[in-house]
């Protein structure tokens, strides 16, 4: 029995970076450094260095922000929705999804600051905040979500930290650190009971907050009059899309971690198969909201809506639109009903397409609407009629994406990425079962 | 200042609901001024001298000169920038039948508010509802809505609505999130994407005017990373003068006034607001959105000007003459 436990710990305890890992971190740091320089230039010269102007007044920064918020919802999907619905198979994925959630929500907060014309006045949100502004709702709900996500990441790790404390007893410094983190976890029945209740409570609490963050983010748009945003469908539409994006992100990350650490025994083909099925379900729900979002205005075809939809269906944004619709919505539904596409490798590729589509989808939600105001666009330079991010904007944006990946990478480096105690319990249960037979 | 203000109030309270024009209509104001000057010169006979004024319901009345006093400014001592001028409700009427895209409103506004970017606050749109209907020129500025969408969404109270109807921006407070710009259905707000190229012009001007930076005078100075827009010229109202666009327009397109006093003027002509709106079938832009703008439009029927003439001036990609710098 101890042998099995040791074997599992060897596999799942945090491990130093391999050479590939170091190169990966170096690449991310290089991108982040470039983006910091770019942001420095932006601070100095103002937002004139972006492609945004008075009509396209929000651009890639805001769509990137919406993307991060969307991705962060996966934490609540895997560790709350699946946990509460008794889907035990997903437990090894909870930590990965919570890490992604924390990284994404931190970056969502930073990205919104990047978009501000006066970032040094950020504290006005707290000293002069007005509750009727959806931005203040977002500030409140995002900070709440970050706190609950951190708890939901940290709390289930207590037994693991206690295990790691013993595992690393040859390295006193590390052992002591894990001892501190484990908050004197001793596996007593009382602690176990508290632990179960707390996780249950956090899982319940995080669902309304998760719905809150993305609904409020949708309301940043839906509370305006603009065609393409002025939609009562927007809250659920955003949440449905967020679950698709988040599930895609989890699949991609779990594939890479499984490969990098050789965790085939813990993150099995079954997990990919189930995640593939889940993705089909989520895409179907999202498809339903997409139909609502586009078909109803297209049927009425009012002047404003017609302009907007035309730019999406056949106009300037049609290439992107059909790419995200085919790649992020139709393709996963069609392919993933076949078991062979739910194998790790094909599913990984599909999940990457889903995540990239999800990113562009946010771009399509933010930008085209702004270029179809109620009154004509006149008296401004011709270039203000269009929007495309500048090189500097891309650099900053890639920097935020790299930073999210770096946070994920570092957390994966220092934390037990698959719940160890859970893996041990499962092993014990299965050996006990075998003995009975 | 307090004294003059009190006198003014007393005067109004006395039931002579006149002089409304006096505070907004330049014509009447000048009459008033010359009278009081004359009055000062001939102080002995001042008591018997009278002046003719028109009341808001259109009657001419005679008022003794001694009952009048020149108002230096409307602010008063208890003036608060977020409250506005007491007991006023400013409105504008734009007569589309007179507009031929002379664009003097734009250049005057640009100059007076030191607009140096490509983001003029007034724009004159070439409008045509459908192929079969006649085209017309439509000047737009901030609508100073009574239910302003921009104010509702501002997270830090940087843009605010005053009791006198004005929607203004405190650019010392604005965090540059641009939510107000997304919320405004009239696309009237502009952003300082870079350091405004105003140089020292605003500083010099502020020095000459003995004034400090205030939401009362937007653009003085403009700040990088904050939102700007038409401010309805409270700095001119305070001096008993009309907004720059109103006085600059050669065709008398813009009428400015006070809804409580039911009067608007373009400097040459004055009308009762309610009558003008009724007779000319005035309307407001995007009324269906419920924003309740303070700017009314009179339809371009029975036109006094030729639409075609405006085409000479038509520059769809330009609203600020940057060469003037």
What does this structure look like?
The complex is a heterodimer of chains A (437) and B (325). Chain A has a single domain, classed as Formate dehydrogenase/DMSO reductase fold, CATH 1.20.1630.10. Helix content of chain A is 74%, strand content 0%. Chain A contains 17 helices and no strands. The model of chain A has no long low-confidence stretch (mean pLDDT 94). Chain B is α+β, with helices and mostly antiparallel strands and 325 residues long. Helices cover 25% and strands 16% of the residues of chain B. Chain B has eleven helices and 13 strands. In chain B, the strands form five sheets. Chain B has a five-stranded mixed β-sheet. A two-stranded antiparallel ribbon of chain B has the order 1-2. In chain B, a hairpin with an 8-residue loop joins β4 and β5. The longest helix of chain B has 16 residues. At the A-B interface, α7 of A face β4, α5, α6 and β8 of B.
Keywords:
heterodimer, A: 437 residues, mainly alpha, Formate dehydrogenase/DMSO reductase fold, 17 helices, globular, B: 325 residues, alpha+beta, Alpha-Beta Plaits, 2 domains, five-stranded mixed β-sheet, 11 helices
Global outline of chain A: globular
Give me the secondary-structure category of chain A.
Answer: mainly alpha
- Helical content of chain B stands at 25-40%
Termini gap of chain A: 18 Å
The CATH architecture name of chain A reads: Up-down Bundle
Number of helices of chain B: 11
CATH class of chain A: Mainly Alpha
CATH topology of the largest domain in chain B: Alpha-Beta Plaits
Structural class label of chain B: alpha+beta
Tally of structural domains of chain A:
1
Percent in strands of chain B: 15-25%
The count of DSSP E runs of length 2 or more, i.e. the number of strands of chain A, is 0
CA-based gyration radius of chain B = 20 Å
Mean of all residue-level pLDDT scores of chain A: 94
Total domain units of chain B = 2
Provide the CATH topology of chain A.
Formate dehydrogenase/DMSO reductase fold
CATH class of the largest domain in chain B: Alpha Beta
Mean of residue pLDDT values of chain B: 85
Distance between the first and last residues' Cα of chain B? 38 Å
Low-confidence stretches of chain B: 8-46
* SSE succession of chain B: HHHEEEHEEHEEHEHEHHEEEHEH
